[in-house]
Design a protein that fits this description.
The chain is an alpha+beta fold. It is built from 11 helices and 11 strands. Strands 1, 2, 3, 4, 5, 6 and 11 form a 7-stranded mixed sheet that branches. Strands 8-9-7-10 form a 4-stranded antiparallel sheet. It is globular and about 60 Å long.
Length: about 325
Amino acid sequence: MLKMERIKIVSPCSSANLGSGFDTFGLALEAFHDTLTAELTDSGIKVEVFGLHANKIPIGLEKNTAGLVAKNLLAGRDIGVRIRLEKGIPLSMGLGSSGASAAACAVGLNHLLGLGLSQNELVKVAAMGEVAAAGAGHADNVAASVLGGFTMVQTFGESLFAIRLDPPTSLEVALAMPLIETPKSKTAMARAILPKSVPFENAIFNVRNAASIVAGFHLGDVAMIGRGMTDVIVEPARMRLIPNYEGVKKAAFDAGASGVAISGAGPSVIAIVDNTKVSATNVAEAMGDAFLADGVRCEACCTRPSLKGTVKVS
């Protein structure tokens, strides 16, 4: 029998895309976290899930993002692991719940097994865990959860590169999470409704705005980030999945938000605020009121970017 080795990891939620940066940008947030405990055993992989919406999360290795990461990393190794996943991130809200679980497992097993994976390798391993939830290895949420801050991912051949920038110190986030029923395969459906082709001028518009977001994070300019969040490709297709989205967006801007977008595949809405000029609480309340005016209950909150990303706590 092995001498048991154990590690505890905490991973933050995230918001992907930020409007114009579809499948590329992510922002780690302090609002919610997953906690994963991994313990090495003689053989086999066992996944246990507790906490928020635990009864809705499968524990089979091919259907659980942490389980699939463990299966991939332990392949060919004469060792096993027991994973206890305490969910704190709301499920199916566009806040990177599955990505955070994958990130936690990748970072945890990297420590336990002494793999010495690089930052880019960790993100790639965690992204492959997303196949369990989304059917493909999307890296935008997991990069933000692994690294913290604002992240962008790039592929070059078979290689994946994840780049991190610190958010401006005045950047605060308002979240509005409508309490609506979402389909079981929400992410797949949200991708299926996207246009197969787009006008050339729309592609140029989004590239220009995505560049503005990166420049804004580099320069510490919240207003520049907000202007860049305008998206004319994905948002028009997905907004119909969110009740009164246009009204919620207008309410956020009227309350002083610098930028507004659908968080990931939705239905949460994220607003970026410069807290030296505007109250993020007021923006969150305005978005919540706009949902309520349309008869939709909503949970609204304020949060800040998570700068640490996924970390070992014991």
